[in-house]
Each structure stands twice: as structure tokens, then as C-alpha cells.
């Protein structure tokens, strides 16, 4: 979804979360579904979720802000996650992340000016025996060196 | 011709999908009749993508295979590794939990049953609850998620609790760096986990289960979701499990990127749709867990080991191991290591044997400097401790912990002061915020380590005191154990802390 797309209507949000109301502990599945559809959790969802689940708005906000995954704003067209955890560090992840961010001229969580890529840190992708690792739009890549990273960035149009 | 190309995400991360495509393409070009099976991983990540060709002499391995190798592979001109189960790294293992992983198509329930699957569940169905729980007690199985708590005792508590609804919750949050056993078994043999959870349900009288699976594992989520669907269609799950008249069903839930949600009470809060803060114990989750009901929370590997215990008998399992650590440990050899992967073996193997002998030393070829055992809350072990046997008590005596059994190897280029700093930084980022020593202490820890780096006198003493405060004043192991990696770095690698001081002087 583009940054300038109209904010989703309350009805639309209600329709998305309605099928999940019968779940035990429905809030996280609802937030994941909203983020899957919109790319982030729209502000307009907060009062709807509070209403549907009989919670305070502050409580819903509190849950959204607790988790690293949920965003309140759109990302670039692609999301690149670079692992920063120990096993990847042992294979040069710090230098890889540093040079990638430098090349793109952005910091963690930022998006390139052409809107192509958002770079986020991640702590372990379960690729610790083929480190360093990265993930682009849900696809994992192992033994990432400078050349492989450049290919990923090129493919993403960064 | 039957060719196996793993679908494990580590294999995919190293190009397995492209290799599978190339095999399809090249086979068509040659007019070869090829059936490609996407199996799980055999655990030899250093050989991935590990392609196997079925022959009358067994499954012959080739790896790592690149797209460029495929023509030679199909023309019989690529050098082989020989029969996969005779590759020494594989042959010297004791594969109980991972017996089927890499062998079969993970979503083929018939093949699962043909390789020993469902035998454990059938046996459990023939037993009463007390008998099921006793079998787990007798196996000596201890929780593989980190704390090593006897699984049978936890099950007994839940069995004895009276409640209209009980739950089985599988902890698949696997946030520790250096670990991937949960991911690998879910991707490679998901029915094992489903079977283990079902046996748990029958044993304690729980009819509903949840797997809390971290969002960083999209492939595992997809495979397990599919496996649950198939299990339901085939009557392995549902109101009448394998015709037993007993009910059990389960759902897969996705985490949301919080490391602390691997802690069982935080996980339960998260599953309930709350902030993932840690709950004070008591009450134990076994008595008041998910939605306040009696709940088993077990790690993936704990639960996935249950079927083989029931298939082969508790004694068979308990006969492996060392001291009070019974059965096998599913080691994950990771980081800067030549031969990394999943290595299942009886408890008792020494740290040095794992790193040097099995792992082959570092990938870079430089000397090993340190090994972090047990994830971000585990100690950094120096080479001088390589005699330490891998067992719960034995590691404890050596100032370390097994945790989820991940080992991250570092070569001599690592700066241990930076690793200590990272441990504090990670704790600060991931703290649930409930205890001051964890939330604020970790931030102070980063600052104090920076001051050590600047050569500030007395900063090491400050750090030591701070670690004591964190150990004593934290509700869970995130704040309470972060001092382990930090202080082990200070203790075993004083030069990395001293050189900075001298450089500044
Ligand atoms: C900060 C923290 C993170 C944890 N992460 C995990 C995890 O990712 N997976 C896991 O199984 N246990 C984890 N644990 C341990 C769980 O709290 C709990 O002991 C375990 O799930 C119980 O299952 P088991 O007895 O089968 O090991 C964590 C504990 C702490 C304090
Ligand atoms: S030690 Fe840290 S993570 Fe654990 S309960 Fe306290 S604040 Fe939360
Ligand atoms: S530490 Fe990077 S993938 Fe595990």
C-alpha cells in the first residue's frame, strides 16, 4: 500500500477481523492479518479492535507497540532484514550490515529515498550454520557476502 | 529416477529451489524421467544443497550442488559423497528425534507412518493417562527449551489438575542465536511434533493445542499449517484421534518478533493477545496457564521426542545419555565453523569434540577463541574448558548452560568486549520492561562496557556489581542470565578488556 493511499474505512477493517473473533486470543492474529493486507497496522484499526474485543484503546496501542513486528507506517516495496545476532556476527554480519546501510545511505528501519527497500534488523533467522543471513520479503538467504547482498539490492531496485 | 532436493529453509537459503528448477529443466532436455522429492534437511548444512539420487545401493549424496553442477549431476559426472547414511558426520549420530528428518517428504503422512510414525501414538492410545505420563517420567526426558525441567513431572501436574479445559502449548519461539532445531524438525518432519502434542493431550486430558511459532520462520509456519490440515483430514487430529474416541486438535499461531515471548509466561500472555510481559510464578502455567487453565508449555524438541519414546519404549531412550541427562541432545553447531548443522547424539560428548572433531574447527581456518553455548543468555566458553561434557549438570559445573543446545563458534578475530556489550544491548532491546535491574540495568551495562573500552578505572568492578544486581533482581532469565555471557567474557578473556585500558592509558 502506498503512503498516500486513502486510510482504510472502519467497515473494511471490521470485515477483515470479523472472522477471527471466535478465536481464543484473537488480537495477534488480527494484527497480523491487518499488517498482511495493508503492510502496517493502520491507526484506524485501534478503535475498531478496541470495540470488537472490548478493550481500551490504550490497551490495544500497548499491545501493538510491544511487538517489534507491528508497524504504524508503510514500508518500502521490499523489506530487507539483516541478522545481527551472534552466529551471524561470528561470520562478519556487523561489517555486512554497516556497508549495506552506508551504500544505501540510510539507517536501520529506514527506507531508501526511491521507496524500494526498507532495512530492518533481525535477531536470528535460524540460518546460524550458514551465516551471515538475511531475508528479503520472507525469502531467506545464507552466506551473504558483499556480492550476494549487491544482487539482492539490485533485484529490489534499491 | 527419484531425486531428493531439500525444502528446508537453510537449503533454500543456499539455492535449493534454483537447483530443483535446474534439475527439472535439464532432465526434460535430456528426456529423463525424473521425480523430484522435496525432503527435509539431513542436518548437514555445510553440504546444502545436498541432493540425493535414489539407487539400488541406497541414496547417493551430492553436495553442495550449485545450478552449474546440475548437468554433470544428471550425466553421472559429478563426484558423489557416497551413500548419505554412510557419510561419517551423519553415520556417527544417534538419530532418534530426527530419525525421519531429511528422509521423507515432510507432508506425506503415509511415508511418515511407513518410517515408524504414528506407532507411538497408537501405543499411547492403548494406555491410560497415568501410564502415558509414567512413560515420559521413565524416559528421563527433560525440557529442551532451556531450563531442562523434567517433562514427565510437568505433565503429571497438569494431569492431576482438575479443569473443564486444559491446553498443550508448544513453544516454537526459538529466538536463541545459534539454534535451528525447532525450525528444522518442523520443516522436515512436522507430523512428529503433531504426534507428540497429541500424545501430551491424551496423557493429561487436554483437547486443544497451540504452536506459538516465531514470525521469522515463514517456511516453517507454512509447512506446519499444511501438516495440521492434512492430519485433520486423515483423522490424526480431531474429535476422534485415530479412531480412539478421544479428541485433540491444534492451531498454529504466529509470534511477533519479541525474543522475550520465548519465556513461557510471556508466551502465554502473547497467545492471549496481550503484551508479552513475564508473569510472576506461582501460579505455575501447569496450573494456571493459557486463559487461566492448566497448560503444558513444552519446547518443540521436547514434544517431538515424545513419539520415539513411545515407539521404542522409555527404556530405549533412557539408555542413552550421561548422569541425569538422559537420551539424545540435538546439537546445533553454528557460527564460524567448518561443518555446521544439526547433530543429534547422546548427552556426554565433550565441547571440544563437537567443535573440533565434528565441527572441524572454524570456517575461516583461524584458531577457535570462544564458543557461546546455549544462546544469547549462555556463557562464552574458552578453549580451556573444551573438556566439559555436554550434560545439564556438567555444563553448570563448568559455568555454562546447555540451553537449547546451540553452539556458536568464534575465531580469534572476535573482540569479547564487543560480544559482552552486545549481550547487554540485546537484553536492553528485548527486555519486557517489568524489572528495573533488567530494563535499566542492561542500558547501564552497555554504558559501563563503553567506559571500560575507554579505559575508565574501576569500570570492570562496576560491571561486576551491576551483573550481580541483574542476577538477583530479575524475574526471568533474560535479565537474570545476561550476566553469564557478559561475565564469562570478562573472566575468560581479560585481555580483551585490559588492552582497551592500556591503549587508553
Ligand atoms: C528470555 C527467555 C526466552 C526463552 N525462549 C525460549 C524459546 O524460544 N523456546 C523454548 O522452548 N523455550 C524458551 N525459554 C524457556 C521457556 O520459558 C520454558 O522453560 C520452556 O518453553 C519449557 O519447555 P521445555 O520444558 O520443554 O523446555 C525461554 C526462557 C526465557 C527466560
Ligand atoms: S528480567 Fe527482564 S525480561 Fe524478564 S521479566 Fe524482568 S524485565 Fe521482563
Ligand atoms: S544468528 Fe543469524 S541466523 Fe541465527
TrEMBL record, chain A:
Its cofactor is [2Fe-2S] cluster. Transmembrane segments: none annotated. The keyword Ribonucleoprotein does not apply. Pfam families: 2Fe-2S_thioredx. Binds 1 [2Fe-2S] cluster. [2Fe-2S] cluster binds at residues 83, 88, 124, 128. Keywords: 2Fe-2S, Iron, Iron-sulfur, Metal-binding. Gene3D superfamilies: Glutaredoxin, NADH-quinone oxidoreductase subunit E. One of its GO terms (molecular function) is oxidoreductase activity. Belongs to the complex I 24 kDa subunit family. This is Formate dehydrogenase subunit gamma.
UniProtKB/TrEMBL annotation, chain B:
It comes from the Bacteria. Its cofactor is [4Fe-4S] cluster; FMN. Keywords: 4Fe-4S, Iron, Iron-sulfur, Metal-binding. SUPFAM superfamilies: Nqo1 FMN-binding domain-like, Nqo1 middle domain-like, Nqo1C-terminal domain-like, Thioredoxin-like. GO terms for molecular function: 4 iron, 4 sulfur cluster binding; FMN binding; metal ion binding; NADH dehydrogenase (ubiquinone) activity. The keyword Metal-binding applies. Residues 417-462 form the NADH-ubiquinone oxidoreductase 51kDa subunit iron-sulphur binding domain. Pfam families: Complex1_51K, NADH_4Fe-4S. InterPro entries: NADH-UbQ_OxRdtase_51kDa_CS, Nuo51_FMN-bd, Nuo51_FMN-bd_sf, Nuop51_4Fe4S-bd, Nuop51_4Fe4S-bd_sf, Thioredoxin-like_sf. Belongs to the complex I 51 kDa subunit family. PANTHER family: NADH-QUINONE OXIDOREDUCTASE SUBUNIT F. This is Formate dehydrogenase. It comes from Paracoccus caeni.
Amino acid at each position: 500500500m502506498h503512503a498516500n493511499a486513502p486510510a482504510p474505512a472502519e467497515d473494511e477493517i471490521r470485515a477483515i477481523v470479523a472472522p477471527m473473533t471466535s478465536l481464543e486470543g484473537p488480537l495477534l492474529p488480527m494484527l497480523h492479518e491487518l499488517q498482511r493486507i495493508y503492510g502496517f497496522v493502520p491507526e484506524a484499526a485501534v478503535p475498531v479492535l478496541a470495540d470488537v474485543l472490548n478493550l481500551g484503546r490504550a490497551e490495544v496501542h500497548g499491545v501493538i507497540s510491544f511487538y517489534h513486528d507491528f508497524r504504524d507506517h508503510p514500508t518500502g516495496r521490499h523489506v530487507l532484514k539483516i541478522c545481527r545476532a551472534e552466529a551471524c556476527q561470528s561470520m562478519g554480519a556487523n561489517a555486512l550490515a554497516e556497508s549495506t546501510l552506508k551504500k544505501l545511505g540510510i539507517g536501520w528501519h529506514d527506507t531508501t529515498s526511491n521507496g524500494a527497500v526498507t532495512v530492518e534488523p533481525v535477531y536470528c533467522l535460524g540460518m546460524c550454520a550458514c551465516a551471515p543471513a538475511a531475508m528479503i520479503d520472507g525469502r531467506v538467504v545464507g552466506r551473504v557476502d558483499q556480492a550476494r547482498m549487491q544482487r539482492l539490492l539490485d533485484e529490489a531496485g534499491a | 529416477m527419484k531425486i531428493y532436493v531439500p525444502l528446508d529453509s537453510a537449503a533454500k537459503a543456499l539455492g535449493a529451489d534454483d537447483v530443483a528448477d535446474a534439475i527439472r529443466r535439464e532432465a526434460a532436455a535430456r528426456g529423463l524421467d525424473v521425480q523430484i522429492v522435496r525432503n527435509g534437511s539431513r542436518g548437514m548444512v555445510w553440504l546444502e544443497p545436498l541432493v540425493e539420487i535414489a539407487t539400488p545401493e541406497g541414496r547417493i549424496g551430492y553436495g553442495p550442488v550449485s545450478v552449474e553442477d546440475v548437468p554433470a549431476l544428471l550425466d553421472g559426472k559429478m563426484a558423489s559423497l557416497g551413500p548419505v547414511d554412510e557419510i561419517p558426520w551423519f553415520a556417527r549420530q544417534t538419530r532418534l528425534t530426527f530419525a525421519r528428518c531429511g528422509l521423507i517428504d515432510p507432508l506425506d503422512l503415509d511415508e511418515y507412518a511407513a518410517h515408524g510414525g504414528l506407532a507411538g501414538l497408537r501405543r499411547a492410545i492403548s494406555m491410560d493417562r497415568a501410564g502415558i505420563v509414567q512413560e515420559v517420567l521413565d524416559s528421563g526426558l527433560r525440557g529442551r527449551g532451556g531450563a531442562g525441567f523434567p517433562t514427565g513431572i510437568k505433565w503429571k501436574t497438569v494431569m492431576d489438575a482438575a479443569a473443564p479445559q486444559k491446553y498443550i502449548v508448544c513453544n516454537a519461539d526459538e529466538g536463541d542465536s545459534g539454534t535451528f532445531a525447532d525450525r528444522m524438525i518442523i520443516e522436515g518432519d512436522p507430523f512428529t511434533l503433531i504426534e507428540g502434542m497429541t500424545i501430551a493431550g491424551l496423557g493429561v486430558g487436554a483437547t486443544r493445542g497451540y504452536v506459538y511459532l516465531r514470525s521469522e520462520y515463514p517456511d516453517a509456519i507454512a509447512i506446519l499449517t499444511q501438516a495440521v490440515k492434512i492430519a485433520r483430514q486423515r483423522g490424526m487430529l480431531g474429535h476422534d484421534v485415530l479412531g480412539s474416541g478421544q479428541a485433540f486438535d491444534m492451531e498454529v499461531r504466529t509470534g511477533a518478533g519479541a525474543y522475550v515471548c520465548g519465556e513461557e509466561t510471556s508466551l502465554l500472555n502473547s497467545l492471549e493477545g496481550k503484551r508479552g510481559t513475564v508473569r510472576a510464578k506461582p501460579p505455575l502455567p501447569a496450573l494456571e496457564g493459557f486463559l487461566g487453565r492448566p497448560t503444558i508449555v513444552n519446547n518443540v524438541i521436547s514434544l517431538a521426542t515424545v513419539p520415539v519414546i513411545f515407539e521404542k519404549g522409555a527404556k530405549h531412550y533412557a539408555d542413552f545419555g550421561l548422569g541425569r541427562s538422559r537420551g539424545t541432545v540435538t546439537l546445533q553447531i553454528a557460527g564460524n565453523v567448518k561443518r555446521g548443522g544439526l547433530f543429534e547424539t547422546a548427552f556426554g560428548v565433550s565441547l571440544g569434540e563437537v567443535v573440533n572433531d565434528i565441527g572441524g574447527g572454524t570456517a575461516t581456518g583461524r584458531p577457535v577463541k570462544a564458543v557461546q553455548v546455549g544462546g544469547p543468555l549462555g556463557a562464552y566458553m574458552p578453549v580451556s574448558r573444551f573438556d566439559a561434557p555436554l550434560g545439564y549438570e556438567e555444563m553448570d559445573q563448568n559455568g555454562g548452560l546447555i540451553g537449547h543446545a546451540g553452539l556458536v563458534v568464534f575465531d580469534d578475530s572476535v573482540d569479547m568486549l564487543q560480544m559482552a556489550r552486545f549481550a547487554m544491548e540485546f537484553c536492553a532491546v528485548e527486555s519486557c520492561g517489568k524489572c528495573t535491574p533488567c530494563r535499566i540495568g542492561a542500558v547501564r551495562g552497555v554504558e559501563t562496557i563503553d567506559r571500560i573500552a575507554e579505559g575508565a578505572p574501576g569500570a570492570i568492578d562496576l560491571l561486576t556489581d551491576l551483573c550481580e544486581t541483574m542476577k538477583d533482581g530479575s524475574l526471568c532469565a533474560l535479565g537474570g542470565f545476561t550476566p553469564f555471557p557478559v561475565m564469562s567474557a570478562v573472566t575468560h578473556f581479560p585481555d580483551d578488556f585490559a588492552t582497551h585500558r592500556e591503549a587508553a592509558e
